[in-house]
Amino acid sequence: MSSIHPPEKTFVLGEFATPEQLVDAGAKLHALALGKLDAYSPFPVHGIEAALGIPKSIVPKMALTAGLTGAIGGYSLIYWCNVIDYPINIGGRPLHSWPTHIPITFECGILLTALTLFFGSIALFRLPRPYHPVFEAESFRSASIDAFWVSIESDKQPGELGDVAQKLRDLGARKVEIVRGPIS
Amino acid sequence: MSANHDTHAAATPSVHELAVLKSGSAMKIAAALGLLGMIATGAGIASAPHETMISYLWAFAFWVGISLGGLFLVMIFNAAGARWTIVLRRAMETMAAPLPLFALLFIPILVNAKQLYSWMTPSSLSPELTKLMPAKQFWLNTNGFTIRAVVYFIMFIAVQQLLYSWSLKQDSEGSAALTRKQRSFSAGILPFMAIAFSVAAVDWLMTLEPGFSSTIFGVYYFAGSFLGAVSFLALASALARGTSGAHAALMQKDHWHNLGKLMLAFTAFWAYIAFSQFLLIWIANLPDEIPWFISRTTGPWKPIFWMLVVGHFFIPFFTLLSRDLKMVPGKLALVAAWILVSGMLDTYWLIVPAFHDAPSFHWTMITAFLGIGGLAISLALFRASGRYGVPVGDPYLDDSLRYSQP
Questions:
Q1: pLDDT tens for residues A41-83?
Q2: Which of B15, B79, B90, B138 could make an SS bond with B187 (beta carbons 3.0 to 4.6 A apart)?
Q3: Residues in A 11-50 with any Cβ partner in B closer than 8 A
Q4: In three state form, how does the secondary structure of chain B look?
Q5: Architecture of the domain spanning A8-55+128-182
């Protein structure tokens, strides 16, 4: 069974009342290096990425690569069509009329960037993902309403994580939950 | 998020500790260079009027574009109700402050207009152009040129003075009514200012070749000028970091980042407009339009054309793509300086091919550039001195100081 089921992980969840408490606690947890951290909030919280030590997104690099690939691909396609595969004299213009290639080059760059970002983001978010262990906690629903949650990921069993839960309470968490489930 | 704002405010220097700006050595140096430059240019007009006037128009077009670009920045941010820009507003108003001087500096162009605008001496025109002139005379006549110039400058100066005086009044009164006034006036006057700027570009630069017409020409000159103004703002802010009372000390990382983003956006905008103008004329290949581009993209001018493509678009565009670079004022200022030099080349490429078959240099280019630029910068600094470096009375200043991008 274990071969087709993804590994199980334990998450220690802490709920905070304000975004400032979340950032503050996140920075302290990051310094303690207890495990992989993540944050959940009803709106974007400034500075949380830096506090949790989340590395820079690769999305900009994906966009640049896709844009350049699209632009070069678009230009090459027109060049191949007009100059190599089917050369036609249009109004006496040179076969390789670069000004006419620019709009298509630009459009292909934009198109491939947009498609890459759309599908790339979906892949990075691992969507569609109907289940995540943090949903096991009933009170976690407040993360999309009015509360700010932080999670610490661990391979240990829930029973072994009492000290981490206590740490969260010490940092001012008003609710602490420990959940376990398969993570895909 | 109110509590979050407080944590930011703690790191921000207090506005109330701000001193007013003093007139410093930069103002005196600029004034001295400006006067020397103008005297030398005057000597140039006496000895080589044609060459000197070409240099003078080039320098004038470059500097007035930046000053007007500053005014457009003020108007656009007012009209948009932008809050993050409030810390920069006094600097932008200062960039527009020399506009009355530019009206005076336009007088030499009016007086020596025959040196520049061939349509003012119909006997010198080619037979083809002579045939077209009766239809063009409705616009291309010396009286009209003069009257229109007066109208443009009355509009530019009136708008600049009104917005500046309301903003200064707010420093002592601090009333929100003055913010509302600046916003609604800016929004109402912007379309008319856009038309005036565009038509002025047609009058002063496009009619250098009376046979040529391009409906996007005014936008092209605007795109370059506006990009120049944003770059000048970034460069001047970076240089003013050590000046006491200057806005630059209050600028946060995100303000620099936003200036960099505007520079990136308008680099792309300039390229977009430039290419739109080029592609349509190139592909139509019509006899009254194409000579303008033939002389500018082939033969001895070809290297300048490609220098613009690479230097005014590719280099700044790909440099400014970097997020980290835009947040470092020193590096951003370096790119801004590069864009300004490219802008000088762009204005040169617009004007000089109308007169010369090959790129040429005349010593008055240096004197006219220093003369007009020096006088304009010294007047701007003079008008800024004795006043606050930021609009301290604006109710949204605090919002601007703790601006943090989403």
A1: 998 888 888 888 888 889 999 999 999 999 999 999 999 999 9
A2: B79
A3: 18-20, 44, 46
A4: CHHHHHHHHHHCCCHHHCCCCCCCHHHHHHHHHHHHHHHHHHHHHHHCHHHHHHHHHHHHHHHHHHHHHHHHHHHHHHHHCCCCCHHHHHHHHHHHCCHHHHHHHCHHHHHCHHHHCHHHCHHHCCHHHHHHHHHHCCCCCHHHHHHHHHHHHHHHHHHHHHHHHHHHHHHHHCCHHHHHHHHHHHHHHHHHHHHHHHHHHHHHCHHHCCCCCCCCHHHHHHHHHHHHHHHHHHHHHHHHHHCCCCHHHHCCHHHHHHHHHHHHHHHHHHHHHHHHHHHHHHHHCCCCCHHHHHHHHCHHHHHHHHHHHHHHHHHHHHHHCCHHHHCCHHHHHHHHHHHHHHHHHHHHHHHHHHCCCCCCCCCHHHHHHHHHHHHHHHHHHHHHCCCCCCCCCCCCHHHHHCCCCC
A5: 2-Layer Sandwich (3.30)
